[in-house]
Design a protein that fits this description.
Elements: H1 3-9, H2 12-16, E1 18-22, H3 28-33, H4 35-42, H5 45-50, E2 58-61, H6 76-86, E3 90-94, H7 98-101, H8 105-118, E4 121-123, E5 128-129, H9 134-168, E6 179-181, E7 187-189, H10 193-209, E8 219-222, E9 225-228
Helix pairs in contact: 8-9
């Protein structure tokens, strides 16, 4: 977006309120390994400063790291953001892209509606938008729809890969306690003899009494130490 056109959307009233930068990664693995995305999200602070906000006015909300954007459940940061916008504290909301803010159309359109009612701007990596403007809101709505569809496609792709491995007999699933995979990916007993002893005792007790908890005085050894139930 042209810098002059973007600056024209920012009014004195917007600048009197704070700028809220929302940062999110979907999984803890992404937080640890995909650090470039996180850095790009934090870098949006410079965009707010360029538009006229003071550094002290930029409030970073990054408590939703490792949380999926599929819903608001567990996303205290997003709920705080919506509340701050609703109370008229935000002049602008910044997010790297729509999917960082929400991948659910209901949540996304609720935020758009509140931003339109309170005169709050939205900025992403592509440009600056006024949700109160029909054309801007239409574009933001389309972005939200595409983000939600992308989540569906990602899930379908992952599930397809799992089913394909399962059909070939190559799908590796977590095993119950007492079983492990060997180097040939075969299921074998845990080589730890104390684990084997504990599992055998459990099975013998259940076979004899019909309950794993019936023999309250039983002892077995785990890690070289006697353990009583």
């Amino acid at each position: 977006m042209d810098a002059t056109a973007a600056a024209g959307k920012v009014t004195r009233e917007h600048l009197q309120r704070d700028a809220y930068l929302y940062i999110r990664q979907s999984t803890l693995k992404q937080v640890i390994n995909n650090t470039e995305s996180t850095q790009r999200q934090y870098a949006l602070r410079s965009r707010a400063i360029a538009l006229g906000w003071d550094h002290s006015q930029i409030i970073v909300i990054d408590t939703d790291q490792g949380q999926s954007g599929a819903s608001t459940e567990g996303r205290d940061g997003f709920q705080r953001l919506v509340a701050e916008v609703g109370m008229g504290h935000a002049g602008i909301v910044l997010g790297l892209e729509v999917s960082r803010l929400a991948r659910n159309n209901t949540d996304w359109h609720r935020l758009l509606e509140i931003c339109a009612l309170t005169g709050t701007l939205i900025l992403d990596e592509d440009g600056l938008y006024d949700p109160g403007n029909f054309n801007d809101r239409l574009l933001l709505g389309l972005k939200g729809t595409m983000s939600e569809a992308e989540l569906h496609l990602l899930k379908a792709r992952l599930r397809g890969g799992v089913l394909s491995k399962a059909r070939r007999g190559e799908l590796v699933q977590p095993l119950p306690v007492g079983l492990v995979y060997d180097h040939a990916e075969r299921v074998v007993l845990d080589p730890d003899t104390s684990v084997q002893q504990a599992i055998r005792h459990l099975l013998v007790t259940f076979a004899a009494t019909g309950s794993a908890y019936a023999d309250s005085g039983a002892q077995f050894r785990v890690g070289g130490q006697a353990v009583s139930r």
